[in-house]
Write a structure and sequence with these properties.
This protein is α+β, with helices and mostly antiparallel strands. The protein has helices spanning 3-16, 31-36, 43-50, 133-136, 149-158, 163-168, 178-188, 201-220; strands at 22-27, 55-61, 64-69, 73-78, 84-88, 98-104, 109-113, 120-125, 263-267, 270-274. The protein binds a DNA duplex through loops.
Length: 280
DNA sequence: GTTTAACCCTGCACGC
DNA sequence: TGCGTGCAGGGTTAAA
């Protein structure tokens, strides 16, 4: 799950979970459920900090979701690649790989489901939030006002790195993963292996626009639901941005702009998709 | 500072 | 049918 999916989830939670009070919290008995709450030594260390609290706000930092509680604590969630929240009721059976179930006083529950358990979930005090390393080092967010093109250009010039890994580096810019970094590079007409400090100011501007537009479009389409990953929103509905993808997952298929077959390269063990004609 | 590879995990597609 | 293998992916970490 990348920035657009987390942002769609944040908005759903804002509408449907903020304001609710937690009656009961449960971490399921499986070993992988413990893996999900790995920062806590015991299940009770996690559940006791949720029970009796009210969710006051849903915030997003990069790919992290922060649910603020009226106790002053913050429930932090990172979805990894297969994690998701699903709303349910007592009558619905729990889907496989459900690790956390939070039941609300007003009825209904919220489940954290994660087959591959690359995601994680923990509760911390607002004061200690700054000590969470991954959050403390998180970079500029494409949806923040501070994300301007002069600021972006300066950041780019300060680094000497290939564009693809740089866009995925959460300490450089937060929220982009493998799918959206490929889409951004295509939209900017730039190759994955261009060096960040070699870009003309016009190219930097194109890349900046591409980041903003790609992320905003993907949110408008409520995220990307691939066949194998099956991301769905809080209410179980898939996104529609997969139909808009220009390069990701389209190996060998004609480029939507020039009809040249889309190519792939392995970059740090991940597939990158690009059009050899449109990107340079 | 940057890059590479390995690791964590499950489900699925594939070949035999 | 059923097994083994490889791949997918976010992020961290250690090593190059």
């Amino acid at each position: 799950m990348e920035l657009p999916e987390v942002e769609v989830m944040r908005r759903d939670l804002e509408k449907d979970v903020v304001g609710r009070k937690v009656k009961e919290a449960e971490v399921r008995p499986s070993r992988n459920s413990m893996r999900v709450i790995r920062r806590h030594a015991k299940r009770k260390d996690f559940t006791s900090r949720l029970e009796g609290t009210k969710v006051t706000r849903a915030e997003r930092k990069g790919k992290y979701l922060l649910l603020h509680l009226d106790s002053g604590d913050v429930w932090v969630v990172h979805f990894g690649m297969s994690g998701q929240f699903v709303r349910g009721t007592k009558r619905n059976v729990l889907p496989p790989h459900t690790h956390i179930v939070v039941t609300f006083q007003q009825g209904g529950d919220l489940r954290y489901v994660d087959p591959r358990t690359f995601g994680e979930s923990f509760v911390t005090s607002a004061d200690e939030l700054g000590k969470v390393k991954e959050l403390a080092h998180i970079a500029i967010d494409p949806l923040e006002d501070t994300f301007t093109w002069p600021a972006f250009g300066e950041l780019m010039a300060r680094r000497a790195s290939k564009l693809k890994p740089l866009l995925m580096d959460q300490t450089f810019i937060s929220g982009l993963g493998n799918i959206y970094s490929d889409e951004v590079l295509f939209a900017a007409g730039l190759r994955h292996d261009r060096m960040s400090d070699s870009l003309s100011s016009q190219e930097v501007r194109r890349l900046y626009r591409a980041v903003q537009e790609t992320v905003q479009d993907a949110i408008r389409y409520r995220g990307t639901t691939l066949e194998d990953e099956a991301y769905v929103d809080l209410f179980g509905k898939p996104g529609e941005y997969q139909n808009e993808l220009k390069v990701y997952g389209r190996k060998g298929l004609p480029c939507r702009r020039c009809r040249t077959p889309i190519e792939t390269v392995k970059i740090s063990n991940r597939n990158s998709y690009f059009c050899p004609q449109c990107q340079s």
